[in-house]
Each structure stands twice: as C-alpha cells, then as structure tokens.
C-alpha cells in the first residue's frame, strides 16, 4: 500500500491536477468516494425507514416482491448479490431467496436418480412447498425462478429451459438444444446416454422416447427416506 | 362469525375455465362445484399466527334453478377457501387469469341462470349486491391506499438508489481514466460501498479483483469450516454442496451464491489450503490443496484397471463420492491419456487406455 505522495514534487503535481480538473468542473474520484460514503449513510437510513414500514409487505406479498425486483433491475441494482448488502440485511430478502436456493438444490439432488437432473418447474414447486412445511411462508414460481438464476453463479450445474410457457429446471451440466421441435431435440442419443430419456423400441409403430422428468406418475410421488438421505451433503 | 366447515374440511380445490371445484381428500365421491360466472369478486386474506392464508370469494345470490348441493341457502354471500398447506399464491394468480378471460362465456351455457325473477328475488338481490359493492369499494380504497403508499415509498427509495448508482458509475469511469489519485484504501472502501448497494463492480474487478474485506474474512472462515467435510469426501466438494452445508449451518444471515464464489476465489491469494476449481464442463468445486491431481488420476486408473472398466455411477459407489465428481475424475484421467471411453446409448464407460 502506498501513501499518496508527500514530497514537494508530488504536492505540486496534485495541486496542478486539482486546478486542471476544477477548471473543467469535474470532481476528483477520491472526493467523490468520500461524498459517496455520506450518501450511503443517508440511504441506509432511508432504507431502514422503508423496512420498518413495508418489510412485512415484501415478505407476504409476492406481487410486491416482483415489483421490487423489477425496479431494482431497472436502476442497475441487484438486491440479492450479497448477503452483506443493505437490501438483504434490512429487508430480509436475502435470507428468503438464499434459503430457497438451498431447498431447490436439495430437491433436485434427491430426485436426480429418478429424472436424470431435469425437472419441471411445477414439480419442483410442489416438492419445495412440501418440504417447507405448513407454517413456512408461501413461495411463488417467480420466487423459484429468481433463486435459480442466482444459483447459476456457482457453475454450470443449474439452468432453466423454457418449454411451453413454463420451464424445465436442469440441475446437471448437460447440453440441451431447444427449438420449436423440442421433443425431437430432446430425444437425441445424448439424452439417452445421460439417462434423461428412455428408448422404447417395443412400442407399436416407430420407437418411442420417454422422458422421466415428464412422467406424471412420478410427479405425485413424495421424496422417499432413501432419497432424502441424498439431500444433505 | 361461525364458519360452517365441519363437513367440508380437508380436500383439494381445482380450477377449470368454467368452474371452481372442491373434492374431499378422503371421500372422492364428495365433489362440489361453483360456476365461475357466479363469482362477483374475490380477494386474498394473508396468513397470520394460527391462521392459514385464505381466498374469500363473493358470489351472486342463489339462482332459482340451482342444483342441489351441500347447502340450499346460506346467510353468507361468500365462501372462504382456507389454504392450510400453501398454494394460495398460485391459485390466486390463476383464478385472476380465469376471471379476466371469462372463457365460460364463449361456450353457451346449457342452463341459463336467471337474474332476478320476481319482486322478492329482486329485493334480496339488491340488498346483497349493494352490501357487497360497498364493501368492495371500501376494500379497494384501502388496498389502493396500502399499495399506493408502499409503492410510493418504494419509488422514492429507488430514486435515491438510482442516484447512488450514478455516482458509482462516475467514480468507476474516473478510476478508469485515472482522474485523480486513488489509494488502495479508497479502492477497498469503494468496493465495499458497491457491495452494500448491490451494484456490480465494473472497472476495478480487472485490476484489483472483486474481493472485499468481507470476502477475505469469509474465505478464512470457510478454510476452517470446510477442512473436515472435504477430508470426509475425498478432498473435493461441488460448490452447490458447499453452499448447502454452510448455509444450513448458519441458519440465518445466509451467504449468497456470489458471496461464496467471491470468497473461494480468494483462497489462493490468502494462502489457504483450499482451491476453487472449475472443470471443463463448467462444474465448480472446492478442493483441498493437499489433494493432488496426480493422486486423483492415479487412483482413477487403479480402480478402473482393477475392475476392468467403470462407469461414473460405479466409481461413485466405490469411492463414496457424488456421481458428478466421480465423473469429473474419470474425465481428468481420460484427458491425460490414462483412460479411454466407450460411449454408447447404454452409458459412458471408461477403460484403461491400452493404445
């Protein structure tokens, strides 16, 4: 770490720079940082005030959460970037989404052997709600989507594939190409290898591909105790 | 207010484009329905302590030709759906959609529901409807007021946040153009301000890395916490596993995924015995530094030679690793030429490389 130059030459140089910039009307970066520190304190107070009035609203009202997230995105702020951020600390939004992230990972791990790491958003929603229990706060599918988007920071594992108005959530790094012929694309050999699709060569007519992720039978099956033991690392 | 619910206690509520149905969970024969055209208005009632979330549905008065149901008449003009096990948010959303689209109007109704036949019915209707409409208006005003107040406050807050974003952009540009003399201290402070506000760090990342004091502290904590779990798992854990482990242990003030990644990136510069590693597939793991690459590759070759051939699943069972990580090891060994693959629709199998 170096101290700002203290010799006479350095002082003279700095004075020259200051004069030059003041002439142009621009403020020096270090002055702005000092200014920002004060503005930050003020903002923190405003946020605290907002939190005291509306923290419950955010917690209970999923529509309000959506609006809040969208407004943040518009101005270039990510309230979920860090648990140490003001938004997270004061509004409690962080813990809500980060915990949801944990629950999503655990459900996907538990069900991976059944569906190869591909699960519909509906089914994921169903299992997450069940896992949260009766007294926990309700979560919407929008909440899940936002939590999953954050999980992407931890590597290629998690992704979402738009399919027919909803999403398929992918929890293993497999490459999937999607276009309007979704099912045909899905049925490539690659998927068979990965265990994501099964080939039924005994079907009448041409061979058929089955996608375990979309088996509605499996949709209603709860996570068994054996599968649950897969959940906790 | 006494809610008549003894007979209709636990069940599943279903929504179609035309009707709202409720089916008893135990006795599937017991199924009742209300046509959506009978719904005037509905609203949410938030959950509270000891209370589950509810949706209250206000209905038109009973038509003359109503089919027999659990109650021929009621003094209440509404029903309440009590969501004991969640689903309320999605259901409310879909109900809103159906009530907006009103698709039942497209299909002709076989039994048209008469509106106000005879003076008696008309009078009942007026009283019922006026009462409901008044309540609607009050509710609307109050909700509007609440929403608009919250929204107004939120907008004001966002305006201030936007100013902060502008200032930070200006600072970042100046750092880039070297306008002014920034010390390392100031850079560190600036980065922590960005972290607090949730503003992405544009310029300084390239030159100074995105780690802040917080991440440095975190990295050291992780170095302690993860030592034992890593050793138990053959020296390597997927980052998603670490995320779950650490956050479950914390219980509150959880780490964001980005916090974890940024902290792990600091392992090397802090000389901690852990490393963050990204495989070709994009999978990110935390690895014990003592866990050398050669060891892993040698062990993979040994095990495969021993058994003749192995798939990732078989290798995982053998070593007590997750399938994901055992696959990465086999791929590593293949990369250096010790193993070769047999790739078929039956799966991916590895053999010792005899070429």
Element order, helices and strands of chain A? HHHHHEHHEEHHEEHH
Outline the biggest β-sheet of chain B: 3 strands, antiparallel
Largest interface: A-B, 89 and 87 residues
State the assembly state of the protein chains.
Answer: heterodimer
Radius of gyration of chain A: 26 Å
Structural category of chain B? alpha+beta
Query: What percentage of the residues of chain A does DSSP assign to strands (E)?
Result: 5-15%
Mean pLDDT of chain B: 80
Q: Biggest sheet of chain A: strands, sense, closure?
A: 3 strands, antiparallel
- Secondary structure: number of strands of chain A: 5
Describe this structure in words.
The complex is a heterodimer of chains A (233) and B (355). By secondary structure, chain A is mainly alpha-helical. Chain A is 58% helix and 8% strand. Chain A contains 11 helices and 5 strands. Chain A has a 3-stranded antiparallel sheet with strand order 1-3-2. In chain A, helix 2 runs antiparallel to helix 3 (62-75), helix 5 (93-115) packs across helix 7 (141-151) and helix 5 crosses helix 11. Mean pLDDT of chain A is 78; it is low at 176-181. Chain B is an alpha+beta fold and 355 residues long. Chain B has 11 helices and 12 strands. Chain B has helices spanning 88-101, 118-177, 184-197, 204-208, 213-225, 227-232, 239-250, 257-264, 293-307, 312-319, 323-335, and strands spanning 11-15, 19-24, 31-35, 39-45, 53-59, 78-83, 236-238, 274-278, 284-288, 310-311, 339-344, 347-352. In chain B, the strands form 4 sheets. A 3-stranded antiparallel sheet of chain B has the order 1-2-3. In chain B, strands 4-5-6 form a 3-stranded antiparallel sheet, covered by helices on one side. In chain B, strands 7-9-8 form a 3-stranded antiparallel sheet. The longest helix of chain B has 60 residues, at 118-177. Chain B is flat. Classes of the chains: A mainly alpha (233), B alpha+beta (355). At the A-B interface, helix 1, helix 2, helix 3, helix 4 and helix 5 of A face helix 1, helix 2, helix 3, helix 7 and helix 8 of B. Chain A: This is Vacuolar-sorting protein SNF8.
């Amino acid at each position: 770490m170096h101290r700002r130059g203290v010799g006479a030459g350095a002082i003279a140089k700095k004075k020259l720079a200051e004069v030059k910039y003041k002439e142009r009307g621009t403020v020096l970066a270090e002055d702005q940082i000092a200014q920002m520190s004060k503005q930050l304190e003020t903002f923190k107070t405003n946020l605290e005030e907002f939190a005291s009035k509306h923290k419950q609203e955010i917690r209970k009202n999923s529509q309000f959460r959506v609006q809040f997230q969208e407004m943040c995105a518009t101005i270039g702020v990510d309230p979920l970037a860090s648990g140490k951020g003001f938004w997270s600390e004061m509004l409690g939004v962080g813990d809500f989404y980060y915990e949801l992230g944990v629950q999503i990972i655990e459900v996907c791990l538990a069900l991976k052997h059944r569906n190869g790491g591909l699960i519909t958003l509906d089914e994921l929603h169903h299992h997450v709600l069940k896992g949260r229990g009766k007294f926990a706060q309700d979560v919407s599918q929008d909440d899940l989507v936002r939590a999953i988007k954050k999980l992407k920071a931890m590597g290629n594992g998690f992704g979402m594939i738009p399919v027919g108005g909803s999403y398929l959530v992918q929890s293993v790094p497999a490459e999937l190409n999607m276009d309007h012929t979704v099912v045909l694309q899905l049925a490539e050999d690659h998927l068979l290898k990965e265990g994501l699709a099964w080939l039924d060569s005994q079907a009448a007519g041409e061979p058929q591909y089955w996608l375990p992720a979309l088996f509605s039978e499996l949709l209603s099956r709860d996570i068994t105790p054996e599968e649950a033991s897969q959940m906790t690392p | 207010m006494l809610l008549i619910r003894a007979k209709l206690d636990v069940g599943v509520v279903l929504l179609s484009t035309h009707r709202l149905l409720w089916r008893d969970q135990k006795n599937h024969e017991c199924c009742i329905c209300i046509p959506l055209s009978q719904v005037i208005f509905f609203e949410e009632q938030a959950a509270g302590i000891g209370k589950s979330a509810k949706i209250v549905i206000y209905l038109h008065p009973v038509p003359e030709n109503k089919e027999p149901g659990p109650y021929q008449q009621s003094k209440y003009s509404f029903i309440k759906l009590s969501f004991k096990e969640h689903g309320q948010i999605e259901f409310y959303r879909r109900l809103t959609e159906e009530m907006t689209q009103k698709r039942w109007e497209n299909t002709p109704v076989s039994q048209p529901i008469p509106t106000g036949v005879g003076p008696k019915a008309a009078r009942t209707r007026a009283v019922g409807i006026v009462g409901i409409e008044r309540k609607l208006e009050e509710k609307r005003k109050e909700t509007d007021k609440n929403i608009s107040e919250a929204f107004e406050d939120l907008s004001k807050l966002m305006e201030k946040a936007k100013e902060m974003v502008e200032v930070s952009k200006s600072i970042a540009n100046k750092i880039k153009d070297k306008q002014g003399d920034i010390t390392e201290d100031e850079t560190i402070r600036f980065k922590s301000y960005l972290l607090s506000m949730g503003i992405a760090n544009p310029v300084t990342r390239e030159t100074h890395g995105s780690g802040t004091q917080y991440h440095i502290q975190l990295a050291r904590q992780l170095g302690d916490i993860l030592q034992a779990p890593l050793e138990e798992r053959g020296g390597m854990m997927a980052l998603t596993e670490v995320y779950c482990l650490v956050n479950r242990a914390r219980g509150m003030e959880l780490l964001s995924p980005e916090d974890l990644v940024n902290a792990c990136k600091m392992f090397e510069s802090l000389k901690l015995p852990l490393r963050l590693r990204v495989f070709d597939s994009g999978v990110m793991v935390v690895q014990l530094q003592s866990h050398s690459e050669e060891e892993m590759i040698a062990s993979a070759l040994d095990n495969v030679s021993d058994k003749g051939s192995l798939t990732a699943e078989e290798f995982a069972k053998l070593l007590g690793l997750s399938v994901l990580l055992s696959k990465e090891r086999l791929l590593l060994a293949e990369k250096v030429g010790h193993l070769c693959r047999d790739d078929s629709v039956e799966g991916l199998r590895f053999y010792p490389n005899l070429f």
